[in-house]
Amino acid sequence: MSTQAPSIHIQGSISIAENRLIETLDMDIKAGTWSCLLGASGVGKSTLLHLIAGLTEHIRFEGSLTTNDRLPLEGRIAYMAQTDLLLPWLSILDNVLIGQRLRGEPIQQNRAETLLEALGLQNHRHQYPSQLSGGQRQRAALARTLMEERDIILLDEPFSALDAGTRAQMQELSAQWLKGKTVLHVTHDPGEAARLGEQIFLLQAHRLQTLDVPALSIPRPVDDPQTLACQGRLLRILREVAG
User: Fold this and answer.
1) Strands 77-80 and 182-186, how do they pair?
2) pLDDT, tens only, 91-139
3) Which of 7, 12, 179, 202 is least crowded, fewest Cβ atoms below 10 Å from its Cβ?
4) To the nearest 5 percent, what fractions of the chain are helix, strand and coil?
């Protein structure tokens, strides 16, 4: 396994059944950076995450998906889906530890406890998913993803169920915990992309566009003029695309 997070290059076309989602894709996800992917619903953002994650049963891909270190992606990815996918019969703590248990690895309960405390879930660790709010379940799913300590992190709207204050806090915590990882983050929130994106991609029908980012390290202050200017620019672009 690589000791450094890789870059990922995707080139080709993506279809589902007879529907060609992306005609010609040429995407370079830089090593060790946080990349945000914006675009309208249904344009293929989650499908692109599924392709990288190897969840390709419903996808037809014609092209190449490579890393700069030439090592396979298998075993190097942690993926957080739009839904929390927590196992209802396990406690929150056991859900966070599920990957290590399934792989027969040493259980790092102290690390899991630290993560849950940082995410504001320490008092809920012995509760079950049905006892938590949607935002709390989403934070538990984030803890499970961070627990994996993979080189490549795929996030599909990971903060969408959170209130504004908690969302900002989770963005900052995630940027800290995932520093140096290769992150691809699907979001519909231009403010979130402006805070976190070291690369920002806009996926439209049949094409991908790379957008400019502020010259500030992440997570960028929410009220910094460069962050606000980027947010406004992204919102204008998204409205133009929708129009």
Assistant:
1) unpaired
2) 999 999 999 999 999 999 999 999 999 999 999 999 999 999 999 999 9
3) 179
4) 35, 25, 40
